[in-house]
Every structure is written in C-alpha cells, then in structure tokens.
Amino acid sequence: MSAFAWGEDVLDFIIGPSLKPDFFERYFEQKALIVHRDEPDRYSDLLSITKIDDLLSGRDLHGDNLDMARADPPLNRDDFILESGFADRGAVGKLYQEGATLILPQLHQHESGLKTFCRALEAELSVHVQTNIYLTPPNNQGFRTHYDDHDVFVLQIEGEKLWRLYDQTVDKPYRGEGFNSQRDIPGELVEEFVLKAGEMAYVPRGLMHDARTQGTGDSLHITVGLIVKTWADLMLEAVSEVALSHKEFRETLPVGFARADYDRGAAKAHFAKLISKISDHASLDNALDIYIDNFIRSRPAYSEGAITKRAARYDAKAKFKLRPFIPWRLAGDGDQLVMITAGGELTFPAALEPGLDKILDGGVFDRSVFNTDDETAQKAIDQLFGFGIVEIAG
After folding, report:
1. Which of 2, 288, 336, 339 is the most buried (most CB within 10 A)?
2. Which of the 8 DSSP states describes residue 343?
C-alpha cells in the first residue's frame, strides 16, 4: 500500500476518474478539463487553511515567498512588504480581511508534502512542476480575466470558486509571453462552473479565464504549474549541436548586412545550404539526450535524512532502498560508470554495474550488493546516500 496521499498514481489522483490516455488525446494543450467529485477531502493531505494560518503566524516570510492580489482596487507590494523585504503580518491580515487574495508562490520548495507531490508528477510527465497557493476571502476576486503562459491543474482544497472560461486568444504561448490587458481582449464566455473542495480543473496555457470565490467560506486552491520544453527548444539544441561540428554556422554574417543597399541574394543561397546541413546532420538522439541530462541535473538533490540517518549508513548490516521519484540515467564512460541524477552526476567503477542495476531495479539491499571490498562498497553507498538516491529501509 502506498504511503502517499495520491496512492500509486499521482496523475490519476489529480484527474481521476478521467483516464490518462483520454486526457492526453483530447485535453492536454487543447482545452479545459473539469472534474467534479463528491470527495471533499481528496486533496486535504496536501494543504489546508489551518496550515496556511500556522505558516503565516510561525514564520517571517520574505517577499519572494508571499504575494497578494486584488482585482479591484489593485494592490501595490509596498502595501504589505516592509523595507526589510519581509512581509508585514499585520498588513497581510488587514488586506485579507478587506478582500485581497493571499498568494504563496513556490510553496513546494518549503513544504515537504508538496515537494514530494511535485517530484512524483515530474517523474510522470518529465516537466518542471511548481505550485502557487491562492487563499481568497468570500465574495472576492484576486485577478481580472487573463491567461497563463503555462498549463495548470487547479486543485480545490477548501471552499468553492466560480470559474469562467473565454474564447482562447493565444494558442500555446511561449514561456514568458505574458498576458497584456491592452492587447489581449477576452472573447465570448464559453463555460462557467464552480469548483468545490476535492474537485479539479485543467486549464491549458493561453486560455482566458477568471475566478471568484463562491459562497460564504474562504477558498483555498493549489495551482500546479507545468513548465514544459517545446519542440522549438529541442530544435535549437539540435542546431547548436550541428554548429559545433560545422564551421559554416560559426562564420560571421556578411559585412554590411544591415545597410539599406545590402543585396541578400548570396545570403539566401548560403542560408539554404545551412538549412540543408541541419536536415542532413541534426540528431534527435543527441539533442534529446542533452535535454534529458539537463532536466535530471536541474532537479534538486533529495537530502532528507542526510543528517538524521547519517550514522546508520556505516552499519555493515544497514538496509537501504531506492528513494521514490528519483530521476537518473546511467551511462558508461570507459572504465567508469556515470550516473546523471538530481543535483549533478556521480562516478563509479565499471565493476559495480551489476550492483547498481539491482539497486535501480528496486528492492531492499545492503552494501554486499556490490560484491566487492568493504571500502569500495562503502564509498558507493556514501555517494548514493549523500545525493538522496537511496534511503534507509525501514
């Protein structure tokens, strides 16, 4: 039985009873999915209003970790952030009473439950996952109609929120292609629904929307953001790889190319040759391997237990297991093995490959799995434990 609130399948926990194949075929990056359920406690293990209250009263939150918003009248950060850069608790409480939405960006970086939840979803989707928390008092609205530049899952934790969706104005906007109220005008209202506790909405990037608290209670929801890489990103990497081995791409642009009388004829012919070389030499495998390695390295090392369990790893009888949701890729490099993992890379003698394979297949093990001398085995355990790839079993 899984020890996690989402059981064995984190995506099913989010979108169920909708099925994953149907979601990716009909909804992902295309249109909204709204899931209504009579399960008010479905997401309650992730967060609660009580936890938010404890967080605000027990920590001095820096302005990087707290924000506030109100559709009308709008707020300035000076209204609730002190000159020191930390949040003014009194002002936060007062503004919330006056209808402002409290926002806790990137809370998963500080709360272990949300952090593990994001890790699990990253392992499923191979995208960077982040959370923003929104707590809104009754009958109020944090933001006017807008769109986001990344896809989101909206998990309603407590209370109710009325959502309205409009004609999509931007199809799959780039990351950073932000909403502009002067340029982006909402289309016709196409859907209106209320999310209650335990329910979920998937909103693809570029879809115009707004939301307002419904009913007499406070509304708490988690926005789970998916920060994706696009085919354009991958193509740029592939072109860069070609440029490393073909000097023509590294030559200077023609002298005088910015002059009004510059003749582009020769440049067009050369450009066509470069396009042909890209077609002939660009490698999906090379570019994708680079993206895989970069994605894995960019995940933070999972250090839970590095201090409290430090001494246990020296026990010759200590039992270990692979930590859940750990990203890794194992590759040979001559007489060494290189493991790309969260936070960087580790090297091992090639002779340890059978033991590493057993570890990565799952199950409980001790240092005898490496079938080598104690010093070499202990060094391997130290690396795996230090980077959070394995943890103490039991």
Report:
1. 339
2. T
